Amino acid sequence: MSIEVSTDPGRLDVDRIHQWLSEDAYWSLGRTLEVVKRSIEHSLNFGAYDEHGELVGYARVVTDHATFAWLCDVYVDPSSRGGGVGTALLDAVSGRLAGLRLSRTLLATADAHALYTRYGFTPLPRPERFMVHGTPER
User: Fold this and answer.
1) How far are the Cα atoms of 43, 69, 80 from residue 64, in angstroms, in the given order?
2) Could you give the CA distance from residue 77 to residue 68 in angstroms, rounded to a whole number?
3) 63: CB partners within 8 A, 6+ apart
4) Can you name the residues that pair with 110 across neighbouring β-strands?
5) Spatial separation of the C-alpha atoms in residues 109 and 130, rounded to whole Å
6) Can you tell me the mean pLDDT for 22-40?
7) Angle between helices 14-23 and 33-41 (to 10 degrees)
8) Which end of the chain is flanked by fewer CB atoms within 10 Å, N or C?
9) Where are the alpha helices (DSSP H) in the chain?
10) Nearest-CA neighbor of 78 among 95, 57, 92?
């Protein structure tokens, strides 16, 4: 499968992303379309497209472009899993963030640890220093 990754938010199929996140992604079940639109508007977005230009994967980065980033909402359409879409997304994210020379990029995930490890993600070295405010994750 040939995958193109773009950071052009105008190419994103927002309704499809909303469906993926609100109906299938364990971390965002029930997320409203309004919240998805707002999150896209205020983030660095990565859309993965197949050879027909159809959106088959998505990732979002929240960042200040100087010191910190949070990789989130990484999702690959079930029909495209195992076809290199996740790798293409992570290649694009890593390439884009490398130029920013950030101190830290965080990720919270319950799966795909082997993929993220290949891109340098490791468990928090001092988790006791991190705290969270808000609703606990699913």
Assistant:
1) 10, 7, 31
2) 28
3) 44, 69, 70, 97, 100, 102
4) none
5) 16
6) 97
7) 120
8) C
9) 14-23, 33-41, 85-98, 113-118
10) 57
- Count of residues in the chain: 138
Instruction: Look up residue 104 and give its two tokens.
Output: 């830290």
Q: What is the distance, to the nearest Å, from the Cα of residue 58 to the centroid of all Cα atoms in its chain?
A: 6
8 Å CB contact between 69 and 61: yes
pLDDT for the residue 135? 75
Beta-bridge partners for 68: 104
Distance CA 87, CA 119 (A): 9
Classify residue 32 by its DSSP letter: -
Q: Give the whole-angstrom CA distance, residue 111 versus residue 92.
A: 20
CA distance 69 to 45: 12
Contact 57, 17 (CB under 8 A): no
Give the pLDDT confidence of 93-114 residue by residue, as tens digits. Answer: 999 999 999 999 999 999 999 9
Amino acid at 94: S
- Calculate mean pLDDT across residues 103-128: 94
Q: Measuring CA to CA, which residue among 88, 3, 7, 91 is closest to residue 54?
A: 3
Type of residue numbered 15? D
* Per-residue pLDDT tens digits for 47-67: 999 999 999 999 999 999 999
